[in-house]
Write a structure and sequence with these properties.
Blueprint: H1 3-8, E1 17-18, H2 29-45, H3 47-53, H4 55-69, E2 76-79, H5 82-92, E3 100-104, H6 109-122, E4 125-129, H7 139-145, E5 150-156, H8 168-178, E6 182-185, H9 197-200, E7 204-208, E8 220-224, H10 226-229, E9 242-246, E10 249-252, H11 266-282, H12 284-303, E11 308-310, E12 321-325, H13 330-339, E13 342-343, E14 345-347, H14 353-359, E15 364-367, H15 375-389
Parallel strand pairs: 1-13, 3-4, 3-5, 5-6, 6-7
Antiparallel strand pairs: 2-8, 7-8, 9-10, 11-12, 12-15, 14-15
Helix pairs in contact: 2-3, 2-11, 4-11, 12-15
The structure holds pyridoxal-5'-phosphate.
Pyridoxal-5'-phosphate binds next to α5.
Length: 390
Amino acid sequence: MDIARIRAETPGIPGRLHLNNAGAALMPACVIDAVIGYTELEGQIGGYEAAAQEAGRLDAVYDDVAKLIGAERAEIAIMENATVAWDHAFYALDLKPGDRILTAEVEYAANYVAFLQRVKRDGIEIDVVPSDAEGTLDVGALERMIDARTVLIAVTWIPTNGGLVNPAAEVGRVARKHGIPYLLDACQAVGQMPVDVDELGCDFLSATGRKFLRGPRGTGFLYARKTLMEKIEPAMIDHFAAEWTSRDKYALRADARRFESWENAYALRLGFSEAIRYALDIGLDAIQDRAWMLADRLRAQLAELPNVSITDTGAKHCAIVSFSIDGVEPAPIAQALRADGINVSVSQPSSTRIDAEKRNLPYVLRASPHYYNDEAEIDRFMAALAALIG
Ligand SMILES: Cc1ncc(COP(=O)(O)O)c(C=O)c1O
């Protein structure tokens, strides 16, 4: 990996020490240029005319996402974020009173409130699969919890609040074995590690563009496995998702774009394409190795500070580092760091309520390096933090 070139291609680097890639990463120049260039074209020749002129480039985003996750292009819908993608899959499922959903302790708040809405509306039940002593989802327990009423396994692969990596592919093997649909929240995984939907065995996968993929805000995608997609209708449709074929009839699109609607942010789509190609060019294995190595370096240095507790769980740790400081509120620390040009974020307990309540987690600081960071930046962050907390 040519780190010098990659850093030179990241316009934000000279001004910021960015360790908030789990929030939104710094975009490379090619992504920014694509968004600005296309917006300028729309301004010059008109929005519909720009879309017609650039139809080929715009259409390629489906191939890019498909390549990124080992899917077919017909299985990809481009969305404005991961939550909308996830919601489209979840709300398309016909759930009845007594149906059970199995989920993870670290399930993301956006997903969990949707579960709760369907508890209220449709009378479904939510069962949380326990984690093992290290904090990883217990796949054996998951399998033992499956019964005739279990209609969905919906879990988060990497949570928003720390370095845990749940065994998404092992969950997929259990889902396949029992023929249960599997919806995977891969929002924090895509862009920091290789993702292959066949290896994962998932039926739906949702992800966002702005985090580890380094795409523009307002982008995301849904993967919907062909065999399942053909059996379900989106919760809501328009005349793009379904053609109005006669006065009383419509015909749904055959592909995953049945989850999309007619109007879209084309400039962002082009930026999203660039971000995916950029990641693929570097290679997701190399990206994972380097991002995880930098996160490990950070954890090792944090562990040396007597008043710091690292709150990451699980057997293996990804590029999200979470920690608390005895007797110190994290928000003012994050603010002080930002004033010093260093970006980290704070994860609140209500984002992952079940895990946070179980572990009695406070608000925690979250530092998430990426491959474009370097060792000197980690050391500089540590020096700034140490100066703040004494
Ligand atoms: C695990 C997880 N899932 C889903 C989301 C939602 O992603 P988006 O904001 O793109 O809808 C996030 C965002 O932080 C997340 O961390």
